[in-house]
Amino acid sequence: MATSSDIRKGLCIRYNNDIYKIVEFLHVKPGKGPAFVRTKLKSVTNGKVIDNTFSAGHRIDEVRVETNKFQYLYKESETYHFMNVDDYNQITVQEILLDSPDFLKEGEIVTVLTNTEDGSTLSVEMPQSVILEITSTEPGVKGNTATNATKPAIVETDAKINVPLFINEGDKIKIDPEKRSYLERVKN
Length: 188
Fold this sequence. Notes:
This protein is mostly beta strands and 188 residues long.
C-alpha cells in the first residue's frame, strides 16, 4: 500500500473498482488546514478522465506495472498493433489506452505499461517528442510576424497542430505529443 505522498505522474492505482493512471497531480499545503494532493486520473478501461483530491497520508492501492519498449506497426480500425523490441511478441491495443494516437507514426518506439498481476495492457505512453513532416499548411503572410503568430498545419499522421508562420510544407518539426504543441523545426 502506498500513500498520497507517493503519487507521481504515470502511477497506476486501483480506485472505485477500476484501474486509473495519474495524468496530473499537485501537492497543496494551504496556510490553514491539512495538506492534500489534487489529481487528474484517467481510467485505463474506458478512457474517462476524473478529478480527485486525496488527503495527506491517504492510503492508495498501487497497481504493480511492468514497462517495456514496443514498436508501433500499424492501425486496424480501433486497434493498434505493436511489437516488443526485445522478444518480437506482438500485441494489439485499443485506441482509448493510447495517450496521443494521432501523432503515432509507423516504426515509432513507445512505452507500454502492463499489469504484472494479469498481464493486461494498461497504457501506451508516447515519447517526450516526435518528429513529423508537414504535409499541408498555408504559406505565411509576410509582415504578419509582429507577435508569435501561428497557423494550422497537418502532419504526416493527419494530426492538426498550430505552427509558426515560417514553417512550410515538407518541413520536419519536433512536436510535444502530450501538450499537442510545436517545439522546433528539425534540420534535414
